[in-house]
Design goal:
Largest interface: A-B, 105 and 106 residues
Chains: A mainly alpha, B mainly alpha, C alpha/beta
CATH class of the largest domain in chain A: Mainly Alpha
Shape of chain A: globular
Distance between the termini of chain C: 33 Å
Strand order of the largest sheet of chain C: 2-1-3-12-6
CATH architecture of the largest domain in chain A: Orthogonal Bundle
CATH class of the largest domain in chain C: Alpha Beta
Radius of gyration of chain C: 23 Å
Number of domains of chain C: 2
Oligomer: heterotrimer
Number of helices of chain C: 21
Structural class of chain C: alpha/beta
Shape of chain C: globular
CATH superfamily of the largest domain in chain A: MetI-like
Helix content of chain C: 40-55%
Strand content of chain A: under 5%
Structural class of chain A: mainly alpha
CATH superfamily of the largest domain in chain C: Periplasmic binding protein-like II
Number of domains of chain A: 2
Distance between the termini of chain A: 26 Å
Order of helices and strands of chain A: HHHHEHHHHHHHHHHH
Largest sheet of chain C: 5 strands, mixed
CATH topology of the largest domain in chain A: MetI-like fold
Strand content of chain C: 5-15%
Number of strands of chain C: 12
Amino acid sequence: MARRNRPGRIVLGIVALIVGLAFLAPLLWVLVTSLSSRGEVYRFPPSFWPDWHWSNYSQAWAAAPWIRYFLNTVFIGACTVALVLGTSVLAGFAFARMRFAGRNVLFVIVLAVMMVPQTVLIIPNYVIASRLHLLDTYLIQILPFGASVFGIFLLRQFFLSIPTEIFDAAQLDGAGPVRMAFQIAGPLARPSLILVGLNTFMGAWNSFVWPYIMTTKDSIRPIEVGLNSFYGVNGTDWTTLSAAVVFTTIPIVVLFLFLQKYFVTGLYSTQGAVR
Amino acid sequence: MRATRRGTLRSPVAYLFVLPALLIFLLFSIGPTVYTFALSFFKWNKLNPALSTYIGLQNYETVFTGQGDPSFWSTVGISLYFVVGMVVVGTAAGLVIALLLQRGSRLLSAVRTMVFLPHVTPLVATSLVWVWIFNPQFGLANLVVHATGHANIDWLGDSDWAMPAVLVYSLWHELGFVSIVFLGGLTTVSGELSEAAKLDGANAWQEFWYVTFPQLRPVLALVLLVESVTSLQAFTQFFVMTGGGPGYATATLGFQLYQQAFVFSNTGYAAALAVVLFLVTAALSILQLRLQGGGFPSFRSLLLRPRQLRKARTT
Amino acid sequence: MNRTRWMATAAAAAVAALALAGCSGGSGSDSDSKSTSAPTLDPDKKVTITFLEAMASGSLKTELEKITKEFEEDNPNITVELQAQPDYNTLKTKIDAAVSAGNAPTIAQVYGEWAAAYADAQVLEPLTAYAADNPSATDGLYKGIKNSLYIDKTLYMWPFNASAVAMFYNPEMLKAAGQDVPTTWSEFAKVAKAVSKDGVVALPMDPGSSSGPAGGTTVFELIAEAYGTPVFADDGTPQLDSKAAVKALNYLVDLKKAGALQTGTNYPGETALGAEKGAFDISTTTSVYYDQEAVGDKFEMGIAPVPGADDGTRINQINGTNVAMFSGATDDQKAAAWKYMQFLTEAETQSEWAQATGYLPVNPATLKLDDMKDYIEKNPYVTFASEDLADSSALPPYAWVQDGLGDLGAALQSALAGNATPEEALKSAQEKAEKAMAADQ
């Protein structure tokens, strides 16, 4: 490192900055479009400075029940996260720290679930949901995502990496498996839990095809389905559409900015899984 | 309950622990997979299942003789184009970005955030953004093209450009994830070995290729696996950006599943496609884990404990 | 050997079980739908019907809500639950999914080719008995519209939102280039080339895709018919590679090469017309409000009949959808739904609907209402568009037409992108469409 000289570091910094801006540019551009008037936008070459046409936002906001979509998404996301964390801690602990007949077979089955192409399962799933009278409910948007292969795998790897002495001591104290999983292993796995939780929540925010097929009523639909409908209906007006893209994306971006250190440490601390 | 080995509980409670997750998988993944498998032997009338007829392997015959519309083999070719693009370019560029950003200055960590940001944006929302960027008359992409003196390109409307356009978008969305995984891997790379290599007179490239890169192999395996599986099953960006067009230029296997099942009502044929895609995904995953050599000897190793893993790796 | 047979048996058993479970809900209705008399409405019974539709935007949404409310006020025991989908592809996905899960809506907006698939699957309620009660309603419809309601001589649909194709244009651009409004397709080509300069592309259009047709697909269909052969014969036989079709596609490719045609998605004609980067938007009459909104007060938008054949013959097509009823509904729902469907085509309703949306009345009686006359005076396009409508027909209602249109959309895309010659593209679309036809029969 000592060999690195100052000019080299400056060049490195400039290159890095250019790369970063390249990634940011599309997001900046949608911001500019969302603040431009229609006349300003349909012009080539395009202009990079908006004319602060804030009415795009009020127009887009008034055109759909966004608050409802937001609340639905947050509710669905929060419930899914709670469920995923529960099922992942339990299954992860069992696969890592407990012995039972068929353990490896069951674990391979769990891993195989990851390889199933989700798009086509929608047909049989739709039939199942309909038989269970779950269509057009929150439950059908939560329950199927309540167990995550990623979560189980990550937590299993993490629990494997905890020194066995901790569990031995707990066992001597007479702790049963439930207490061990939730009071000892769970709290230790906090970074992994946050990572799994964040991923699950973002998955819920991102989820599209599933709720698109499984729901019909606006009152229970999540944000991305709402956005797609908005596109179908107002797709010809890029200014208001851009405004809608901006305000539906900002919450998740802000959430990420606040929690990004967990993202990174979560990934690092789970090198057990990576390595 | 009794302990068999240190820290390992033998208790029937274990079944209760795995039960919730397994029930969910059973109901919403495994069951439907079996059902899909069954559907693939039928000329299935989804509107009225009573009118369906058993046709044995005929759907698979349609798949493998390329009788489908579009032919299965052209779909495979298009999928390969996308997967190879994502895996090769994505992995290489992700690694380069990770190396570029691995030192921890304030600027570099700000850039890390910029690079990762696209990955957290929802696919529907940012696919729409890129549809606008690729707009043939007013889009940002054509401004770049214009600057190089070329005529405007109808990105999403031209069979030659549509796939590169979707690839650019998908890479933009995915590279942040890939590079952060590599960054994580880089923190575990042994500094001592690098120093030793430098003392032996290795230049930066040699140091990377002979010292750093081999240590990244397990991370590389993970990236390759995750990227090939996600890109093989990619759907949303095709749905929003191209609808599989123009013509069938972006009709990947993952998109065709949807198209055949939901647009054309060829449910049985779509089911056969799904089974094939499932088998390809599974085969690819196992193959990749096996081929990783050195780092990941086999799929079985995922079942071992880290300590055994470490041993396996050093032998 | 043994193993495959075992698997096949197991698969068959599993599917049989699921199929049994699947149709237990709806199978009962198939048998009694053959009854000759329509169910009657019990005026004292509360009933809710669901209407899966695609009137999700702007005045379409508010107006459908408004007339539905008027219906509910007249019929306090009937509730109509509107389930709006953002576009027609989504609508079809939704209907299919709902039907396959055994919880079809009471009624839905359908294109003829969709309805044909539902009728084939025996999930659609034949309406012949219902219509027998009031033959004047059926006979009062435009002939082409009336014909479009039948599948194999059985009445399966009832009209709702009909439209014809019209040409929206920027008169200032035409004037600046010294051109008159074109009335035939050869004139159109000449004018389009003349106005395409300084960043203006005369005709931006959406050629459709394998997922389904779009406005540009219709433009192609009209040109092919103007050259002598419609893309589907009356019995549904695809004629996608006829001499006329190849000529029509060459016509469009030639415009593209001359810089007078540009492909895009999501109503590119409307966007470009509004941005003064396009001179024409050839689209259905319902575009009038969207085009007007895009244009604003930048210029006075012109509306003219869509160009016709070179010998002066008018060629147009009935666009828009009909309403169909699903057989799984209860008798009360069916009776209530029929009442609602009748209400939708009453002259007063059609007048209100047409004035708010740009759809065309489905029966000539509507044009004779006083408020409609006032409206026509201000919007003369209704007259020529309605005349076109009276002499046109819709695409033939056969299930494979849906696949054929997807194939056609894909062919147009390839040829216009220069990735295939018109002959090749259409030949391959024709082969695929024939295969789809054979598979459905």
